[in-house]
Design brief:
Layout: H1 2-8, E1 16-26, E2 53-61, E3 66-72, H2 77-93, E4 130-134, H3 143-151, E5 154-158, H4 168-181, H5 189-205, H6 214-225, E6 228-229, E7 236-237, H7 250-253
Parallel strand pairs: 1-4, 4-5
Antiparallel strand pairs: 1-2, 2-3, 6-7
């Protein structure tokens, strides 16, 4: 489902956003390169000082590269839900007007159900205006939050367990945090909250869109197509197996003709 949404949603005029929570990040010396001169490595204190932790709430649109980041000390439901509702409301306000009810190109049935008739309750929901991909956090499945999203035409796609690679928000989080904290030594949670925010502002000044698949995925598809399946098994080979030729009978050699003496 997520793969089809990434490939077709934007083409149907439905924006797709991803959401994730990263962290917690501790106020300790972070691994990474530094700008120290050669032969003068950076010295880190050996004392264990508790400087606090911070997390990063992120909304990311792969098609445009736009990111919305909010650092927080913690991400319980009273913090996560108001921020998510505020950001989603701002995103919906910037979209075009709500389409007419039943518009097939923007209805969930246009991409959710490829074969067969969609269920009857789907027609009672408002047209889909936005797709939201998030993880399997228990706080996401509260009835109040899900109903609030559905009433505004936001269709939710949870990523399966063990499939974080299906959520590009985790990729942009790693990029921002690595640029902000790599090789640095934050001393307080406030510094951890400030530096990723500055990186997100710089990223939005010249965002990089993310494409689903790309050249690497195309190479994997070509590699799978070059494999030769083995009959009656799930395995495959990279080169065709030689077939054993049966010896032809004497009649086939003479093509059915008999020669006289």
């Amino acid at each position: 489902m997520s793969d089809r949404a990434y490939r077709t949603a934007e083409g149907l005029g439905i924006p797709l956003w991803c959401e994730d929570e990263a962290g917690p990040y501790r106020a300790i010396p972070q691994p990474g390169a530094s700008w120290q001169p050669v032969g003068c490595p950076a010295h880190r204190p050996h004392e264990s000082i508790r400087g606090g932790t911070a997390k990063l709430l992120t909304l990311f649109r792969p098609a445009t590269g736009q990111v919305r980041a909010q650092p927080v000390l913690g991400a319980p439901n009273p913090v996560l839900h108001p921020w998510l509702q505020q950001e989603i409301a701002a995103i919906l306000a910037a979209l075009p007007q709500v389409p007419a009810p039943g518009a097939p190109a923007r209805h969930a049935a246009a991409w959710r159900w490829g074969q067969g008739d969609p269920p009857g309750w789907l027609a009672e929901l408002p047209p889909v205006r936005l797709l939201l991909v998030w993880d399997n956090l228990a706080g996401h499945r509260t009835p109040a939050l899900v109903e609030w999203l559905l009433e505004r035409g936001v269709w939710v796609l949870p990523t399966p367990l063990g499939g974080p690679w299906l959520n590009p928000a985790e990729a942009i989080q790693r990029i921002l945090v690595r640029r902000a904290l790599g090789g640095q030594q934050p001393t307080s949670a406030q510094e951890i909250m400030t530096w990723p925010t500055e990186q997100a502002t710089g990223w939005n000044a010249n965002p990089t869109p993310f494409c689903w698949g790309g050249k690497r995925a195309a190479r994997r598809v070509r590699a799978r197509e070059r494999r030769h399946r083995l009959g009656g098994a799930a395995g495959s080979t990279r080169r065709p197996l030689p077939r054993q030729r049966r010896p032809r009978s004497q009649s086939s050699l003479t093509n059915g003709y008999t020669h006289g003496t």
